[in-house]
Amino acid sequence: MWQFTSSIPVVHKHHENAHGPPASTHGGGGAGEEAGKGSETAANEEDTGSILNCAIAGGLGGGIGDTAMHSLDTVKTRQQGAPSNGKYRSMLSAYRTIFVEEGVRRGLYGGYCAAMLGSLPSAALFFSTYEYSKKKMIDDWQINETATHLTAGFLGDLVSSVVYVPSEVLKTRLQLQGRFNNPYFDSGYNYRNLRDTVKTVIKTEGVGALLFGYKATLARDLPFSALQFAFYEKFRQWAFRIEGKDTGLDDLSLVSEIYTGACAGGLAGVLTTPLDVIKTRVQTQQPSNDFSKSRTHAVKLSGSLFGSLKTVYNSEGFLGFFSGVGPRFVWTSVQSSIMLLLYQMSLRALNNSSSKLLR
Predict the structure, then answer these.
(1) CA 61, CA 348: separation in Å to the nearest integer?
(2) Gene Ontology terms, cellular component aspect (predicted)?
(3) What is the CATH number of domain 41-285+296-353?
(4) In angstroms, how far is the first alpha carbon of the chain from the final one?
(5) What number of CA atoms fall less than 13 Å from residue 54's CA on the CB side?
(6) Beta-ladder partners of 3
(7) What is the mean pLDDT, run by run of 10 residues, along the chain of 359 residues?
(8) Where would I find the H helices in the chain?
């Protein structure tokens, strides 16, 4: 039976006397025990299969969502990495400028391969962890739903961060750089491709450089994921009520699926923008104070999150916390909408296929 509290189908155990008379005690005990073990094994196999389905559906939804919105993420990275550069100040003009000067592949879609290197496996890890945690907390431990959604989103991002943080470092540098030997913008970096980026970073800065901004990334993404999925689950509950549908039996309309995902992602994205600013600048700033004169650099930040927030405030004021908020809002809302819609659709199809195979 499907329940709204978890995307994993839950096998409910029935009481022994719920249907028919009690089993005979003459020679039937062994068969009853074997039947019980068989049911428990089938339930465990179904749960394992459901977790795997969550991972596959999550990887698919996350990869496609990130692909669709990568160009806007590049615009956001330029705005946050070079906040005083006039040609990147407006979202639309920045998009047009990057497209005209640098093209699509190495301009708007710079760092795409690095993004996919982390997006697919991290999304799979996130959703499998999220759904398992949600099922465990609600069904087994009877924990409040809102607290569960916040905690499950937090845990899902924590587990997946091991994969996506290194790819995030590579992605943001390539996005900030743009094309190789870029004559239009000097980021301070000049990598030929993803392989050269990995090789150069490790050679010149050490393996630890792949974890630059790990704390800042977690400080952004843990609350983002917790808020996003708490909002998403709550918005879906409201949507079911508005449509007058049964949360355990019916499906939401396509429009509601799109809007719930978009609102959850957009709202969480705006609220965590200050943390995103810190994360982007920590991962893209030069390891030394020898900044290039041709790039309008952001102020160099310290390793402390609160110290970095203070530095941004002192140099740019309150508005500095929301540098790139426009593209971040669009990116998080549309990406969240695509990802969660595809996740629900893929998971439904995979679970239906699994159910047919188990019959």
Answers:
(1) 13
(2) mitochondrial inner membrane
(3) 1.50.40.10
(4) 14
(5) 22
(6) 6
(7) 33 38 45 49 55 89 92 91 85 93 93 93 92 90 90 92 90 92 89 94 90 84 92 93 85 91 96 89 66 52 75 85 89 92 89 72
(8) 29-81, 91-102, 112-135, 145-177, 194-205, 214-243, 254-271, 273-284, 305-316, 325-358
Distance separating alpha carbons of residues 55 and 58, to the nearest angstrom: 5
Q: Are 231 and 243 in contact (CB under 8 A)?
A: no
User: With 0-12 CB in 10 A as exposed, 13-18 as middle and 19+ as buried, what is 299?
Assistant: middle
Q: Which two tokens stand for residue 33?
A: 């025990």
The domain spans of the chain are: 41-285+296-353
Q: Write down the pLDDT at residue 316.
A: 83
Hey, what long-range contacts does 200-207 have (CB within 8 A, 24 or more apart)?
A: 201/169, 201/170, 201/173, 205/287
Which residue type sits at 18? A
| Structure tokens, 79 | 């705005």
Block residue for tokens 């005979």: 24
